[in-house]
From TrEMBL:
Organism of this sequence: Christiangramia salexigens
Protein name: ABC transporter permease
GO cellular component terms given for this protein: plasma membrane
Segments passing through the bilayer: 27-47, 292-315, 336-363, 383-405
UniProt keywords, alphabetically: Cell membrane, Membrane, Transmembrane, Transmembrane helix
Domain MacB-like periplasmic core, residue spans: 26-253
Bilayer topology term: Multi-pass membrane protein
GO molecular function, one term: transmembrane transporter activity
């Protein structure tokens, strides 16, 4: 073991010496590895950051969350003309499923209001605020964090009380630094009392954020908008209990809703059951494909880098032929010479890789400054991958030069080097 530590030390010294004595030649040889590692890790870091941002935007909802509506998230075998005839989900269906659907943690009836609505406090007006008209159970489905106040409770939800919960940005625009709790604002042409303000979230990759939203009881909004098709977009958001078989739960959900709507056996569903898990799986699939494409493209840069390392190692063998002959004549084994040059190749490749990783780190910091809330992340896992790939390239590139060095005849090596 000690002899290999000594070999590693000597190889490290030779590698550093090569960098010092032949700066331009060594730098050009390492450039391929540097560019290759930079390309691979930059792609991995960018895709990881994108995936983290997307899943972070979806993290408010559990992967098991189910959304029932007359629209579908993805492609459908149902003709478009038939889909357009599907009825909206109703408040009565929400009440029915709430009583009759087993293994359910929470269900919320939600009205999507196109274009949002203006909010007014005294002389200050904020236009186009995204209004979430929901039942009180929505609090148990989405991960809300409050800066102050609370969400509306069941009596307020059922009665349609004129209360409102504001996103951080909406509260700042309307009230500035003053306390909004208990104040009344105008919404839908009516007064509503502020009972809560959400913590600042920041903008997601989809461009949406709870900071610019406000939440009111769905029955408060129904008094104004009703449920006329096309005016609002109703949906049911359902969260199953932990550990429940998803397929069985969806089958029971479809059975109950078909039963309520009187859909006969053999007829297709006139609603869509959309699973959030399917969307996250789709995201995983896309990011996986991006990673593969990036790795293939970056692999060509590494191929060039491998040839560069091999070239510098062949030159190094030729320059040190005399030294190799002397080492062998003093009893150095072939595996000692082999290990020495392999270690040197690996060290040179890792140096090139570390330079590439450093460049990625600098670029990620600079890029994050220009992308607002989107943060590029160079994870420890990606750093480990970059280092291991560099070492592997050095190992592969150094094998042939190391074998040629280990097989040199000591007498011929000394004679050739003189």
């Amino acid at each position: 073991m000690l002899i290999y530590l000594r070999v590693f030390k000597e190889s490290f010294v030779f590698a550093i010496s090569a960098l010092r004595n032949n700066k331009l030649r060594t730098a050009l040889s390492l450039l391929g590895v540097t560019i290759g590692i930079f390309s691979i890790i930059a792609v991995l870091a960018a895709v990881d950051s994108l995936e983290k941002e997307i899943k972070g935007s979806l993290s408010a909802l559990d992967n098991s969350t189910i959304i029932v509506m007359r629209f579908n998230f993805g492609p459908s075998d149902v003709p478009r003309w038939k889909r357009e005839q599907f009825p909206d989900v109703t408040y009565e269906e929400y009440q029915y499923l709430k009583k009759n659907l087993p293994d359910m943690e929470a269900i919320s009836f939600v009205l999507g209001i196109p274009g949002g609505a203006p909010l007014k406090y005294q002389e200050v007006t904020t236009a186009g605020v995204d209004i979430g008209a929901v039942t009180h159970e929505y609090y148990n489905i989405e991960a809300f964090e409050f800066q102050e106040g609370r969400f509306f409770n069941e009596p307020e939800s059922v009665s349609g009380s004129p209360v409102i919960v504001l996103g951080h940005e909406v509260a700042e625009n309307l009230f500035g630094s003053s306390d909004p709790l208990g104040k009344e604002i105008r919404i839908f042409g009516r007064n509503a009392r502020v009972i809560g303000v959400l913590k600042k979230q920041g903008q997601s990759i989809f461009g949406n954020s709870r900071d610019g939203q406000a939440f009111v009881p769905v029955n408060f909004a129904r008094k104004v908008y009703g449920t006329t098709k096309g005016t609002v977009f109703p949906e049911l958001i359902i969260k199953p209990e932990d550990g429940v078989d998803n397929d069985e739960f969806i089958a029971m959900l479809e059975y109950q809703l078909r039963n309520f709507r009187g859909i006969k056996s053999g007829e297709i569903n006139n609603f869509f059951v959309n699973q959030l898990q399917g969307f996250t799986d789709f995201i995983d699939n896309i990011t996986g494909q991006l990673n593969i494409i990036g790795l293939v493209i970056s692999g060509f840069s590494l191929l060039v880098g491998g040839f560069g390392i091999a070239n510098i190692m062949f030159v190094s063998v030729k320059e040190r032929t005399n030294l190799i002959g002397i080492q062998k004549s003093l009893g150095a084994k072939n595996r000692f010479i082999l290990s020495q040059f392999l270690f040197e190749a690996i060290i040179l490749a890792v140096i090139g890789g570390l330079i590439g990783l450093f460049i990625v780190w600098i670029v990620s910091i600079v890029a994050s400054q220009f992308t607002g809330d989107f943060q590029f992340v160079l994870s420890p896992w990606n750093i480990l991958i970059g280092t291991l790939v560099s070492a592997l390239i050095g190992l592969i590139s150094g094998i042939l030069p190391a074998i040629s060095a280990s097989k040199l005849d000591p007498v011929e090596a000394i004679r050739t080097g003189m």
